[in-house]
Amino acid sequence: MNLYQILETNAKTSPGKTALVFGKERISYRTLLERVNRLSAGLTELGLRKGDRLCACMPNRPEVVYTFFAAMKLGLIYVGLNVMLKKAELDYILDDCRPQAAVVFSPLLPVMAETGLARSGRMQLIRADAGTAVGELSVRLLIDSQSEKLAETVDVSPADDAMIGYTSGTTGYPKGAVHTHRSILGCLEEVAEHIALTDRDVIAVPLPLFQLSSFLVHVGMPVYRGCTIVLMDKFEVSTFSRSLSEFKVTVFALVPAIMQMLVDAAKTEKIDFSGVRVALTAGGMLPPNLRQEFESRLGSPVFNGYGSTETGLFVSLSSIAEPARRTSAGRVLPHIRIRLVKEDGAEASVGEAGEILIAGERKFVRYWNNDEATGKAIRDGWYASGDIGCFDEEGHLHIVDRKMDMIIRGGFNIYPAELERVLAQDRRIKQIVVIGVPHHRLGEVPKAYVVLERGERMGAEELIAMSRARLANYKALAAVEFVEEDFLPRNALGKVMKKELRKIA
Description:
Number of domains: 3
CATH architecture of the largest domain: 3-Layer(aba) Sandwich
Distance between the termini: 51 Å
Strand content: 25-35%
Largest sheet: 9 strands, mixed
Structural class: alpha/beta
CATH superfamily of the largest domain: ANL, N-terminal domain
Number of strands: 26
């Protein structure tokens, strides 16, 4: 089976069932399949062939779903692009994966049109929403101009590449984690079974679908089980609250920042959680007090888990069958293997911290166009996550520290190395060190400690503005502190010890 076939199967068994809700629009599984087939025929006419990359850069809309499943039908490789990225960030990713086409939301077309790949004519741009100019390529035009009978399903095997999810690393340059149809289907089956998802469930989508894991939770898994998906183009407490009651939502995923927003809102307004049976979270180390307060208002436990772009979905997840542990990320899922390895290479004992190594068919297969990074990350079949965890006496996984000093701001990953690399290009800066500092609503925000060259001057607001201009807004610095060189704690080799810096931040 491949990922297109899960849609095809549900469209045949439950054609009239609502697949997508978006504003006032209700889209049945029959209509969804028809639009996907027509779009795939249009993409074929544009010259896209099996193995080509197809990017999507848009907020949560039905066209995201059309684009993904059309790509799966044709054996294309789907690449979700963060809508907040700036031109330089887009250029790097596009140059790396070299897509033949990109489906783009209208407000984002100007910046996408300025990318090198688009300007050179090597990437076709397709408007996600309705086109206005005569002859302009758009999803609607491609759908309306095609007959469903023209669409032919390409022979796609489970081992074929399906998705690339971009994630930054220690160098600050994005890396594309490649997932196959097999690895994604395994993820969907595993988690759907674990939370007892059925076609009676209704899934709300408060998180952006350009994130690979969010897409799999909110689109892949519901379509796999034939559920109804309630799309929201962006998260707002009032809209989300109305959706819970109006559509009888039973399942959703969220990050701690959104959890905090809902808890705060529930103090002054009624939010009806009565129909919800599963709330999933894995967007950061979940504060125990926040978990407890949210669960008391929700009336059922939060399913807290651990996973990453490289693992596709969760590799561990708490269960409704046993009481939640306040700091636990649950038990390791059945078809996943996890080892915890200490710095000396020995296996960590119960209660001891060690790096989390992951094996199993659910993980990514390689980094796109990056054999060196793949070789460092996957050793003898085990993916070295860089995250630190420990097991308690009953086999529950607890996350102790995070990968490469990563900052999670409202559910979005920020890699300090990227900020440091971009901002250090200013010749006035001798050294810059970025760490995450606590924030009451967003969880963490980036703060920079800056050493200036002798005689140079710079203001905090100037550096913050520079970070906003050069990177996506969510990556922008929230605070800046100018320090002397000897302020920064260093190890014997002169490397700044960020763990120690966080203690005095």
